[in-house]
Design a protein that fits this description.
The protein has 526 residues and is α/β, with parallel strands linked by helices. It is built from 17 helices and 20 strands. Strands 7-8-6-9-10-11-12-13-14 form a nine-stranded mixed β-sheet. Helix 14 crosses helix 15 (445-473). It is globular, with a radius of gyration of 26 Å.
Length: 526
């Protein structure tokens, strides 16, 4: 048994995506007396609870009880990242002297190996995954966990002192690290932009939380930080760690920079350049900056140049982050559902120069300023397809003020994807990059991405079916059907101009009218 033998541990928040599952198991294995409490009912949590079946865990569901947060019933409270810091139950624990941890702070204190911790408003998942890919080319035992549905504490038995460890860290997890005054050995801060203002006391509060990753570093640690992002760069003057920067252009301090598709660096320990593979995953300046940050973290951890090249070549990108889902009739369908803030979506718009962009945007309001996003859509998008949601009215206003036009709002992802298909030409991109949260139409941003993939798959299958039909229509005796198909195609242009909500009916009526005008029969050629 471990250090928590016999300790009464309250796990606050089990979650529908197993946010508390790994930590509950960990404390059972440590010999603790575990209570899991969640505001949701047993029915709502049925799938997650099934994973805990047979474990000696007390369940307190459908609401919290005061005794689980005071010395009468708890020696430790472990907070799920989804639980907000101002919860009255957490306040009660603090008032009565019960320590509060999060899985991430427990892991950082228990890990026998140095940890690379990566955060930022955007780019943290891609940077974390690419860093791990490079390190795995150097040390296959590399661990990747954190804010990506992978329990970090559950992996502790696999970690040796020389195991490379990469953690993606959210702002919620940073709150727990800051409260316990712990940090990683190598901290990476990709950028800071407006986000989650519906749950913070303004942007300054949110930005300070992001910068807190640098607050508890020592002179033996390293901060890798984006020098081009003013809010992130402020962390460089507020840390005791060595600072290594990255950005678009070369700078005086030790750091990394871009030269088109090449990443170069000059640090106290090394210098060099490596060319990025000519692949979709490195499309756009924001993705190349992510690559620069990942290379920096991997080099600082000890990876060699061969591992960097191998890792870059093997990296396939990350699901839901500028993810190429399919190419249909020469049109690329890209899923960037994780662009839940305007800055992330604007970066995605800049990643496809020279291509027609048909952008699916809008959604739930996080109290973010949408003016810049609306202006970017008006200028850079060939068409804007808005999903229904509480943020969408403000976004439509921002688009119109910038002289742009939009279609929708659409009540389903399927309708939005079909509208994109109707407008796109070969070489264009249909891009899901909402710039808003997902709640309302979708369970969360990942559900939104799943629905996009499903809609694209449906579209692809329908195109295959149409291709088979077309082949059949070219057989003898099929002239009438073939003419009708040509007339339907001639109607696609008008349908694209604003009748997407009635697209199929419009095509059929248009084709019928054309056939009536030109004659439905042609016995000489039947």
């Amino acid at each position: 048994m471990g250090a928590y033998q016999g300790k009464r541990v309250t796990v606050m928040g089990l979650g529908t995506r197993a946010g508390g599952l790994g930590v509950a198991r960990y404390f059972v294995e440590q010999g603790a007396i575990v209570t899991v409490t969640d505001g949701k009912s047993a029915q709502d949590l049925a799938d997650t609870l099934a994973e805990l079946a047979g474990l000696p865990i007390e369940l307190a569901l459908g609401g919290h009880q005061d005794r689980h947060f005071t010395p009468d019933g708890a020696d430790l409270v472990v907070r799920n990242p989804a639980v907000r810091r101002w919860s009255p139950y957490l306040a009660r624990a603090r008032e009565t002297g019960v320590p509060i941890e999060m899985e991430i702070s427990i892991f950082l204190q228990a890990s026998p190996a140095p940890v690379i911790g990566i955060t930022g408003t955007k780019g943290k998942t891609t940077t974390s995954s690419l860093t791990a890919a490079i390190l795995r080319a150097w040390r296959p035992s590399t661990i990747l966990a954190g804010n990506m549905g992978v329990s970090a504490v559950g992996l502790l038995p696999q970690i040796e002192p020389d195991t490379p460890v990469v953690l993606e860290i959210s702002n919620w997890q940073l709150e727990g690290m800051d409260e316990r005054r712990v940090g990683p050995r190598i901290a990476v801060l990709t950028n800071i932009h407006e986000d989650h203002l519906d749950t913070y006391d303004g942007f300054d509060d949110y930005a300070e939380t992001k910068r807190s990753i640098a607050r508890h570093l020592s002179s033996d640690d390293t901060l890798v930080v984006n020098r081009d992002n003013a809010e992130a760069w402020r962390a460089a003057s507020a840390t005791g760690a060595r600072v290594v920067s990255f950005g678009v252009a070369r700078s005086a301090e030790e750091g990394f920079w871009l030269e088109d598709r090449t990443i170069c660096w000059e640090t106290a320990g090394s210098s060099g350049c490596v060319e990025l593979p000519d692949r979709f995953v490195y499309q756009g300046t924001h993705q190349r900056l992510n690559a620069a940050a990942a290379i920096a973290a991997a080099l600082l951890r000890g990876a060699d140049l061969n591992a960097i090249r191998t890792g870059l070549a093997r990296f396939e990108g990350v699901k839901d982050r500028t993810e190429l889902v399919a190419e249909i009739d020469g049109v690329f369908y890209v899923n960037d559902t994780s662009a839940t803030a305007p800055a992330a979506a604007i970066a995605a718009l800049d990643a496809f120069p020279g291509r027609g962009l048909h952008v699916i945007a809008g959604g739930f309001d996080k109290k973010l300023e949408l003016g810049e996003f609306g202006a970017a859509l008006a200028v850079k998008a060939s068409s804007v397809l808005l999903l229904d949601g509480t943020a969408t009215p403000a976004l439509t206003t921002a688009i119109e003020r910038a002289g742009g036009r939009w279609a929708g709002p659409f009540g389903s992802m399927h309708d939005a994807v079909v509208a994109g298909y109707e407008r796109a030409r070969p070489g264009d991109v249909v891009l899901l990059s909402p710039g808003c949260a997902s709640f309302g139409l979708f369970r969360d941003e990942f559900d939104r991405g799943d629905k996009f993939r499903e809609a694209v798959a449906t579209l692809r299958n329908s195109r295959k079916e149409r291709a088979h039909e077309n082949a059949a229509e070219h057989r003898p005796g099929s002239f009438h059907r073939n003419r009708r198909y040509r007339y339907e195609r001639s109607c696609r242009g008008p349908a694209r101009s604003g009748l997407s909500g009635h697209r199929f009916r419009f095509w059929v009526e248009c084709a019928d009218r054309a056939l009536d005008e030109h004659g439905r029969g042609d016995s000489a050629r039947s």
